[in-house]
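Hello again, I could really use a second opinion on something today. My current little project is about how a certain protein chain folds up. You're getting the sequence in one-letter code plus the fold written as tokens. Here's the protein in full, and shout if anything looks odd to you:
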Amino acid sequence: MKGASLISYLANLIMIASADGVIDNKEEIAIDRICNEISAKRTDAEKARKVTKKGDYQVTPVGRYSERIRNLEDMIFVALSDNDLSDPEKSLILSFAKVIGAKQEQINTILSESITRFRTYESTIICPGCGYEIPSDWKFCAECGTSVQATTEVSSTSSTSNEDEIPDDSPEEKGLRFEKYILHKFNLNFCKVKEWRGDKFTDGIYAESTKYPDIEIEFSLKDTKKLFAVECKWRKGYFQDRIKWARKEQIFIYKCYSEENNIPVFVVIGVGRYPDNPEDVFVIPLDDLTEPFLTLDFLAKYRRLDKNKCFFFDLEKSVLR
């Protein structure tokens, strides 16, 4: 989302925050966090504020249905951030929900999720290695493997040699190693790589397209061709029998990409010490994913029993195996 649509999206949040007459500090923080999540610039937020100050601005639905629902979620999150859902805020939210066709059951679900989301944000810390947001009680970052709790003692009896350690690559380089591992699992007799975004970063600078799934592949069988996308995620290990595979806003972007391009997206997750030789590999249709955290019980049915086999795309069922 960009341009006028993005400005209206943010203006809707500001209208909710100011519905009770004042925007307090917690609501400002909530809006800043959302700007960060949807990659909105500070100048975008400033333009949105100017729009709302004109006096005639009305809360306006923008974008596709999925974006409108996301806007509703963010509006509710902002309204709840000061621990008080006022009558003016409630009135605006219900009016917006009615216009976009959201049902009461959806609103109730979003309310519940927003409360959980708010509590989660209150109990998170930022990884010093990669800036990833993780629960405050985690000992290492699920994104890059960096220790986030100070280690005061080093065991003198450790039997792990330097050869057993992962090379000190950046998170991007580790991710790239895993992408290469996955790419080598596609049979080039049937699969043609149409787009590979993983190699398009340098010194932390990314192209806009790198927010989308890592790889686009065209599968061909006889006279039939089918395009699909793959998002690769490597994690060093499990924590409390689960992993965090993505942030909420990333999931939203992947789903928008799938809808806009009308192609299926599959998330391939590797877990284990080495990005180029993970212990476990899972292949999950994006349609089956809604939450950032995945438990071992959930992952079990998507595990590749033979991780060294080449991938095969089932044209009839539109499933990557």
Summary: Residues 190 and 220 are 5 Å apart (CA to CA). The chain has nine helices and 13 strands. Residues 150-167, 201-209 have pLDDT under 50 and may be disordered. Residues 169-320 form a domain with the Trna Endonuclease; Chain: A, domain 1 fold (CATH 3.40.1350.10).
